[in-house]
Structure formats: C-alpha cells, structure tokens
C-alpha cells in the first residue's frame, strides 16, 4: 500500500475540567525524525506516544504536540510559590544590608519587587488539579484517535499518488511502444541515407554494391538498437507496479526504479537516429521527472 509522508490530524478531549488537544503533522524526509512536545503533567506518556507514532510512520519528519487548558473557569484560584517568596525576601534583606538601609521589608515591597522580575510570580493562578489515572486514560484515547486520523490521511494521500503513478506509467508505456515502432522502421531509412551519401561522394563514377549498402545499414541499425533498453524499461515499470501494491514502505525502492528508468531513456535518446523517437523520448523524460517528484512524498 502506498503511503504519503504528508498528513495532519487533530483530536481533542475534556477530562476532569481540563481540555487536551493533540496535533500530529508530517512532511517529507529521507529518514524518520520525530519531534514531540508535551506538558510536564503528561511526561509519563512520552515513551508510549513515541512508540505509537513510530508504528504509524517509518519515514518523514513528524511533529506531535499535546497541550492542556483548564476550562473550569475558576479564575479566583491562586497559589503561593513559597520558595520564590523566600528568595525574593532574602534578596531584599541582602540589598538592605548592602545599602545600609533602615526601612522595613514589608509584604508590599516583596510583591512590588516580584512584579518587576521575570519567570513567574510569588502569587500565581493555581495549577489544574488532575486525577492523573483517569486523565492519562483519556489522553491515551485522544492520542489514538489523532493517530488513526493521521494514518487515514496518509493512506488517502498515498492512494491519490498511486493512481497518478499508474496513469503516468501507462503514458510512458504508450510512448515507449511508439519509440519501438519508430526504431524498427529505421533500417530502410539507414539504407537510403547511405545510398545518398555514397552517390554524392562517388559522383556516379563508382558502381554502388547493394549488398554492401545493406550490410552497412544493418551495422548502423545494430549500433542504434534500443530493444534491450526498452525491455529493461518494461521490466522496471512492472516492478514499479508490484511495489505500489505491496505492503510496507516503498519510497526508496520507487526512487531507485525512477533513476533506472531515467538512465535507460537517456541511453535511448542518445542511440536513436530517429527525430520522432528523440522527441518522444523527451516526453518520457518529462513524465519520469513528474513521477520522481511525487516519489519524494512516498513513505
């Protein structure tokens, strides 16, 4: 089955008054590269999430993020950061001693000092209280839903790419048949071309040996023979189709076959003596380039 490396999925859930959102996205990549961001409350799920994602994707750059939001609306719930409060108080005392001041260190001074500092406050909104056993169960289910949608999108995109491949391969085959017919018809052309050249050079003073002309024409046709290249191209196309219908990652195999197809058509273009066959070979190259670009998106 052809799988695309490009996909996006999002799933959400609410558990115990806390909303969880899961986003998974992936783009093309030569290898598997996973970037995972999750809140510290769910750090215990990191290994499980990584394994779950790696079962759905084997290539590409995957980014997954989990975010929490307290949706209980309890905006008046506050908590004290005791270690920070003691640190601010201690800093005020040290500054008072350093400057030799007699002023008292009041709560108002501590709070004002805290406000001008970064990275948190002495008094802050309380962290959501989460029943982690229940929440982790719901979080796992949410991640699994996102992964199911993620995999479904990769399959859908992959199927579109597969159909495009098959259509373009049919076009390549059709053009290769035309090149084969044009190549097979070149022997009489080589003979006539030799006759004209010899006649032109001899100026009618030398009798032309028809048998020798036929031999030379056959020699030229043999040098320009592309039957082996056509046979290999057909073999590569058949392998390409088989891989498209096989299970597992196929991108690297398809990329290799596209390169081989390109080499064969380049050889044909350099060997053929037919202008029409050369033009058709250029069309084949164009189709192969489009296939090559699409292959970069296949897992």
UniProtKB/TrEMBL annotation:
GO molecular function, one term: hydrolase activity
Boundaries of every Endoribonuclease YicC-like C-terminal domain copy: 182-299
Domain Endoribonuclease YicC-like N-terminal: 4-159
Superkingdom field: Bacteria
Xref: InterPro entries: YicC-like_C (IPR013551), YicC-like_N (IPR013527), YicC/YloC-like (IPR005229)
UniProtKB keywords: Endonuclease, Hydrolase, Nuclease
Required cofactor(s): a divalent metal cation
Any Pfam family: YicC-like_C
Membership in a protein family: Belongs to the YicC/YloC family.
Name assigned to this protein: YicC family protein
């Amino acid at each position: 089955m052809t799988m695309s490396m490009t996909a996006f999925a999002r799933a959400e859930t609410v558990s115990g008054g806390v909303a969880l959102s899961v986003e998974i996205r992936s783009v093309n990549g030569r290898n598997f590269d996973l970037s995972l961001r999750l809140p510290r409350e769910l750090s215990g799920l990191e290994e499980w999430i990584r394994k779950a994602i790696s079962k759905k994707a084997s290539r590409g750059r995957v980014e997954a993020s989990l975010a929490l939001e307290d949706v209980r609306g309890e905006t008046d719930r506050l908590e004290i950061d005791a270690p920070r409060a003691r640190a601010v108080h201690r800093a005020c005392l040290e500054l008072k001693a350093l400057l030799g001041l007699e002023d008292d260190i009041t709560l108002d001074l501590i709070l004002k000092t805290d406000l001008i500092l970064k990275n948190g406050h002495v008094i802050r909104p309380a962290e959501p209280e989460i029943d982690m056993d229940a929440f982790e169960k719901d979080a796992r289910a949410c991640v699994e839903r996102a992964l199911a949608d993620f995999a479904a999108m990769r399959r859908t995109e992959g199927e579109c790419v597969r159909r495009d491949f098959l259509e373009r391969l049919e076009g390549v085959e059709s053009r290769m048949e035309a090149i084969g017919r044009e190549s097979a018809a070149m022997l009489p052309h080589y003979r006539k071309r030799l006759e004209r050249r010899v006649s032109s050079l001899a100026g009618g003073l030398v009798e032309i040996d028809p048998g020798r002309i036929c031999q030379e024409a056959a020699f030229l046709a043999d040098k320009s023979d592309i039957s082996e290249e056509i046979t290999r191209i057909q073999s590569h196309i058949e392998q390409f189709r088989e891989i498209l219908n096989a299970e597992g990652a196929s991108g690297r195999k398809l990329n290799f076959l596209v390169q081989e197809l390109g080499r064969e058509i380049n050889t044909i273009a350099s060997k053929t003596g037919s202008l029409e066959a050369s033009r058709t070979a250029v069309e084949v190259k164009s189709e192969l380039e489009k296939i090559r670009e699409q292959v970069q998106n296949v897992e």
